[in-house]
Amino acid sequence: xxxxxxxxxxxxxxxxxxxxxxxxxxxxxxxxxxxxxxxxxxxxxxxxxxxxxxxxxxxxxxxxxxxxxxxxxxxxxxxxxxxxxxxxxxxxxxxxxxxxxxxxxxxxxxxxxxxxxxxxxxxxxxxxxxxxxxxxxxxxxxxxxxxxxxxxxxxxxxxxxxxxxxxxxxxxxxxxxxxxxxxxxxxxxxxxxxxxxxxxxxxxxxxxxxxxxxxxxxxxxxxxxxxxxxxxxxxxxxxxxxxxxxxxxxxxxxxxxxxxxxxxxxxxxxxxxxxxxxxxxxxxxxxxxxxxxxxxxxxxxxxx
Length: 304
Description:
Blueprint: H1 4-30, H2 37-55, H3 57-69, H4 71-92, H5 98-104, H6 107-120, H7 126-143, H8 158-176, H9 185-209, H10 218-246, H11 248-253, H12 257-270, H13 276-303
Helix pairs in contact: 1-5, 1-10, 1-12, 2-4, 2-9, 2-10, 3-9, 4-8, 4-9, 5-12, 6-7, 6-8, 7-13
């Protein structure tokens, strides 16, 4: 049973999470030309693992026996939800805008709702179904520049396609979080970060062998530090805790706040344009979050 205090805390954690993830969108674009994408992913999770292992070693040591029992599951979460998602995410930053990246992330809640229904048998009300459709239409508008008919011709840029694939991975990660081991969020985060680092090593090596690796510049190190602090440590730990309170369906819906914050940051900090298709897409995505949350609250009242 949700209590007002737990709900308030969960909503606050999700608000901070989406702010941190919106910053990640701008930081990912800002890193272009200052550090190569696979090296960025690899160094990101190496540093996160080191910070957590050093500062929370006692908690990690306490939870280690439980983590060992679920090592395969935890490794899959870190490899796909962290390494795979970020590899596609930072690759997308090279061929699309931060505005597009942020708004396309609005597909995550719709994918989470669909995944939770398929895997857990979670019922989708008609109102939530409409909200999901609104979100997906908004994403399609942005990805096609307002010409949704081009989807039939494969007419979306590579970066937008990478972002859609990344959203699928993160939606799967969110649904799977409901089955996470009974350990602290920080211990789980540390274990998944280590898995993400190990999974990203081959990608960084392949990038170097192809001659595409670029060591961080001074600006690259600055961006990397902010990525480690905000979306990696703050955002991920708060998200894990919020999912534990609200469940993946309701928590995933709040990812739709990322487009708002990332669009504001991209326009104000990077000077990116915000045209009519962006407005239409954003309004559609926001309509989706409103309908989905209204449906969830209605179901909660009926349960009581």
